[in-house]
Amino acid sequence: MNMFADLVIAPEFVVTHAPALLVLVPLLMSAATVVAPNGRFAWVMALATSAFCLWAGVALAAEVADKGLISYEMGGWAPPVGIEFRADDLNTLVVLVITLVGLLSAIYAQPAVAREVRSEKQPLFYTAFQICLAGLLGISLTGDAFNLFVFLEISSIATYVLVALGVNRDRRALTASFNYLIMGTIGASFFVVGVGFLYAAMGTLNMADMATRIPELQDNRVVQAGFAFILVGLGLKAAMFPLHQWLPSAYAYAPSFVTVFLSATATKAAFYALARFMFSVFNPSLDFVAASLIWVLAPLACLAILFCSFQAAFQLDVRRILAYSSVAQVGYMLLGLATGTAAGIAAGMFHMANHALMKGALFMAVGAAALNADVWKLSHFQGAGRQAPLTFAGFTIAGLSLIGVPLTAGFLSKWRLLEAVMGVHWWWAAVVIGISSLLAFIYVGRILEAVFFKAPIEDAPVIKEAPVAVLFPLWVLAGLNIVFGLDPSLPLGLAQAGAQAVLGVDLGGVQ
Amino acid sequence: MEFVLERYNYWIIIVLMMGGLYIVFESQNLIKRLAGLSIFQTSVIVFYVTLGKVAGGTAPIFIGDMHGGHGDDHGGEHHADDKAHGAAAAHETTDAHAEGDHGHGEAIVDAHGDEHATDAAHAVEAAKDAGHATDTAHVASDLHATGGHEVVDAVIYSNPLPHVLMLTAIVVGVATLSVGLALVVRIREAYGTIEMDEVRDADIAEGEAEGGAA
Fold it and tell me: What ipTM, to 2 d.p.?
């Protein structure tokens, strides 16, 4: 059963303290990176950090697969008093996605950052990257509601800085980052108000402890208000429609490495936190949660899927096409959650992992093209397929996965999602998925058409093949899209085990 | 009317929160937006402080006998419990407390000096039954065993936990504000203005110029 045990040989110390080390190592390394003499040295440190995180993440996943739930007591203070880090099947998937994309984007970072960020700023840039990584892993691992807020803000503040560093290429990065800062802070404050309500009603901040108390307090207005605040707050961070306005600009104008890393991890971590609160702390057997799933989350998810796919189809900037598509994909994941069934949650989490793989690959390929020629417009990409065949072959695989073509991971997660919505007889949601797949075909098709079938326009900057440091992570991600399309047992198994774990525990607690 | 007036702190929170949000969305000036954001965050801080306030409570500083079984022995299990409950209660009360609701509390207790330990326990129970009022409070009664029987030397503390949480939130808020101000400085350098509508106009003009060239 233990699929990671052969993969990793980790000393006992790393295995036991993996939850703490996953946050601590990037945090400490980020401080050390500040004094790195130059960008290349800082890059090596960031690479080492993210490699260690992936290693510790796999070790943690192996341990969880072996023993089930792991509760790590910070500083030896037992929960609910102390801060607890919990690792179960639901968040090991998130940790694996974040650490894997973290490492691959760190490999990709060197050529991208060398070009896009001024050399004296590079050590600080990698510092912010590692802080962001620490924050995201903290969000995924913590079992304490207020601690989650702190990690949310650690990662967000680092993100604002990272996005703003796109200023060397496009000054609009500054306003994008500023808007992100305003919206992100409002979201975090809403979340913390919600946590305050829950604390007022229950006197605890430990998420597992809250879960045991909520059923008896389900008619309490304070708890219900807390839920509403948390839903809005995390919804903002996860770019839930219509709270997604900050995302397209932030992704479009950030340095390409940042876009790769964020699109695959930041909204994912917030999405995970939302799922954790909805199903693990609260649960769909409570009336107000069930009502908000059906009447708030499901319609908003459908609107996001339709509206943002539609917007994506009309963008001229390739990065904006992909960014709007990201919001639509978050809609798919939320639709999975909105069903409130184990199948739906599993489909949502599975799609989350797949989306990280495909969007990571897509943004990498687009960024790779921009390495040689600063191009972002669709028309600039005409004929690029002939000049950079390897880059755009990777792009094509990930693009097909985004559409949901059979044999790719994207197809399987969309199929699971369809099964889940049909399982609760939401035929309208199935129609929405069908329409948006067509729209995805249009917006990915427009890029592919330009890349492969149109003659390059005259006097356009020439796109060259990307260096190996870019091709390697790109092809790993694209390859995983195929591998998981043929044999999805790893991510799907984790997603299903996670979904059953959160629902199983809570259903047991209620009845 | 009395219902409204005695909840004045909540009105302050609501006014600050809505006012802050209004400034954030209405103002075109980036500095004013950040100011609005800070006002909004302040309302959250006031909200948490309200949660931690106990009627008649003082600052949660230990001033009693340090060897009363709940002193500053940091590793102590008992001390750990007390910390979470926001109450430095003696063994008897802790037990009663913990059985009921883990001491997570909704207790609003007017414990006075020289009360018996059992009375304090009752008071805690009663307060717990009184329900889940939003103005949560914790009692911090400091019990001593003097002579043969238990005498309560009660000091009421405000719940320290929300204050600690808000210290963290203030730090986060300051960090966010400084990043925001740094961004405004850079926006000023890049655009020559800190008015959002002018920045937007500049972007649109630039976009049209690009569109024309392409």
Answer: 0.85
